[in-house]
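User: Structure please.
Assistant: Input sequence and predicted structure:
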Amino acid sequence: MKKLTSILLVATIFLANTTFAQNVTETIPKVLAAMSNAKSMTYHFYAQERMHDGKISKSDVEFKVIANPLKIYAKANLPQSAQLMYESAVSKEVKVKKGLKLSLNPTSGLLMKGVHNPITRAGFATVKKILETSIAQRKGADLSSFVKILGSVNYDGKDCWKVEINDPDYKIIDYTVAAGETSVWAIGKKLAISEYKIKELNNIDDDVKPGQKLKIPSAYAKKTTFYIDKSNYLPIYHKMEDEKGVYEIYEFKDLKLGVDFKATDFDFN
């Protein structure tokens, strides 16, 4: 009887682990597809980002987003109060209303004060690229070897999967700026790593020169935690950790998809 019980226990564990692996394999492609299919949306965005001095900067922004062509309206409450508009088909600059009306480069010092990412990264396209790059770096490894579904969690009133991605090879590496790369933004975009992290590691601003030696992270994060909304497969909570600990926390609250916007929805009030 004891032998039979042991056999049944081993079989149960084996089946549970097999199902677990299958869930990862099935879930991640659906998450990537869901991010591709998120064409128009509104959400209340909250961020906590570790700055170079170790302090945490908080963001509170209400977004309206059309993914293609990219059109964004943002009402920022933190870290500074302003209204912002970006329309890729019209201009490469962000229109800003902060008392006065201005037009600024998305990565200008005024717009990047207290944040890691420009508002042009609203939506899910950037996190999709980071996730795809993380998977590609594993060179065909079984997803379940570095992506784990740790169970369910209730977040913002939604039933979510808690997904953890670990990169055992994460480290700070040497990098030589390539021909044609004149800013950290070109490097970050190519490698899907944090531009803020590059600037922090090298104590530099935006500009770089071909041949310049830099320290960069080998990947965006050492460990990433996502909460994936089971109803639509979108990651509505992101926590990124580097060699020092928590680096970024991003929250997409009150997310609404398939919004039929009017032209006036993107006007400054």
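The longest strand covers residues 245-257.
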